[in-house]
Specification:
Elements (H helix, E strand, L loop, with lengths): L6 H11 L4 H6 L13 H14 L9 H8 L3 H8 L5 H26 L20 H15 L6 H17 L2 H21 L9 E5 L11 H12 L9 E4 L12 H11 L7 E4 L5 H14 L7 E5 L2 H7 L7 H8 L12 E5 L5 E6 L25 H4 L5 H20 L7 H11 L15 H35 L1
């Protein structure tokens, strides 16, 4: 195993594990010309707080649990990261993404650097290297040194790059390979399924993997679920499948359960183009969420349903008939703050067939983050932003003023050197530079800032939903015409 992964290799994990903020991470520290800028105050503060926490590390006698706690991202540092987003509108939008990504980074640092066991899956959620592995420990110390000496311009990027680098070394390249496999297997099927006129009772039958043991490619439990699913493979019920499961057990395996389940279904007569695979989900919660995201990608409508056949133990967990069922666990572990959990976006109900679960999507799914791989157990307490940050109000007058100044500067740049606009400049150019919000179009009863914000947001969401529904109606009409 190489302890010197390339930047390109690490960034594959950065993109997968920190999907909510990945694009922002790559842009951080650059202006629109791509030229590095001097560090801003928040960047220097972020770098400074990190250095002050880990300055006492003794490389000769490292206490990895203590070091892990010192390297974990704190709520105050997440608040600093939000300063990288200069506009309050975008800062609010990205808040949950930063919180969720910081929790994931802390999970990786605690488990893979601190070797702290997790609550649910200590046999597989662990480092590939023991606490006494000298080569790995040397790699960790070098990575920490690199982090502390990194450019403050890239303060946020460096923190998440560090967590992704540790994951890269432990994972041996499995995650990006699995995602590439999924995309290659799914694209022909998605193209075929999108052209299909939905007539069956269920748009997909979900087949969840169950970890094999030893050198098996599929466990007996997985095959049993597949056989139950195949027994319902018929026109009018459903003829399309989504298989779920990544490389889980035994620890370090390269077997992708979803792919092997697809091969099994093909061997039993199901056409390959009728099967999608989810090669990233690690347990029941992510099986359901990722499969639904895949189904939604094919163009299913809100009235469509998916069905999953389970063994009794898994069924009882999903339906909450055992302590710590799926809904309770989702609320404890998944997303942060106002995003809620997958129950905000999905309907999950008991099916008419024994041990079956019927899954649907709510209209809110259109507005939810299309995030995967965020489903991890917290080690320690998850990040929660303070009330001050959570309840931050937008200063709309300041936003308008910023827009005026930014617009005027852009005009002045065309004429000559950029200078600060005077009050007279602003007054003369106000009509051309100001983009008035919807709430300013006519005089209304005075409203609070939050009410005006909510009105604009709801109007945009409503327009987006109407547009999307119209497109889907047109698509269905076209598909029906072709079928005739």
């Amino acid at each position: 195993m190489s302890f010197t992964p390339s930047v390109e290799e690490v960034e594959k994990y950065l993109a997968a594990d920190f999907q909510p903020i990945y694009e922002h991470l790559l842009r951080e520290g650059l202006d629109n010309t791509g030229v590095p800028q001097p560090p801003k105050k928040w960047q220097e503060e972020l770098q400074s707080t990190l250095r002050s926490r880990v300055s006492s590390i003794d490389p000769n006698h490292p206490d990895w649990k203590v070091i892990a706690s010192q390297l974990c991202i704190t709520p105050s540092e997440v608040s600093l990261m939000l300063e990288a987003t200069p506009h309050p509108l975008f800062r609010t939008k990205h808040k949950a993404g930063y919180v969720t990504s910081a929790n994931k980074a802390n999970y990786l640092v605690n488990v893979l650097l601190g070797r702290i066991p997790t609550k649910w899956y200590p046999d597989i959620e662990r480092s590939a290297f023991g606490i006494e592995d000298e080569a790995y420990n040397s790699f960790l110390l070098e990575a920490i040194k690199e982090l502390l000496n990194s450019n403050p311009n890239r303060a946020i990027y460096s923190l998440f790059f560090f967590a992704a680098k540790i994951k890269c070394v432990n994972d041996h390249g499995r995650l990006p390979r699995n995602l590439e496999l999924e995309e290659a297997e799914n694209w022909p099927s998605i193209v075929h399924i999108r052209s299909y006129h939905w007539k069956d009772r269920y748009v997909f039958i979900l087949v969840f993997g169950d970890s094999p043991v030893g050198q098996e490619k599929l466990s007996e439990a997985s095959i049993e679920k597949a056989e139950v699913a195949l027994s319902h493979n018929s026109l009018g019920f459903s003829t399309r499948f989504i298989t779920c499961g990544t490389s889980i057990r035994p620890f370090g395996t390269k077997v992708v359960e979803a792919y092997e389940l697809k091969q099994y279904l093909i061997s039993r007569g199901v056409p390959a183009k009728q099967i999608l695979i989810d090669a990233a989900s690690e347990h029941t919660n992510s099986n359901i969420w990722n499969a639904t995201l895949l189904a939604f990608r094919t163009g299913i409508l809100f009235e469509h349903k998916l069905i999953a056949f389970m063994l009794k133990e898994q069924f009882d967990y999903v339906m909450g008939e055992v302590a710590g069922g799926m809904e309770k666990r989702s609320k404890e572990e998944v997303w942060a703050g106002e995003l809620g959990d997958m129950y905000e976006y999905l309907t999950i109900d008991r099916g008419e067939i024994e041990n079956s679960v019927v899954i649907g999507v709510k209209e809110s799914v259109e507005e939810c983050p299309n995030w995967r791989l965020m489903w991890k157990n917290h080690v320690g307490r998850g990040i929660e932003l303070s009330e001050k940050v959570e309840e931050e109000e937008w200063d709309e007058e300041a936003i308008k003023e910023d827009r005026k100044i930014a617009g005027l500067k852009a005009l002045l740049e065309k004429e000559g050197p950029v200078c600060e606009p005077t009050e007279e400049d602003l007054r003369e150019n106000e009509e051309a530079l100001t983009r008035l919000s919807d709430s300013e179009e006519e005089d209304q009863k005075p409203k609070t800032k939050n009410e005006r914000q909510r009105e604009r947001q709801n109007a945009k969401l409503k327009a987006k939903r109407v547009e999307k529904k119209e497109k889907k109606k047109q698509w269905r009409a076209t598909a029906a015409t072709k079928e005739k």
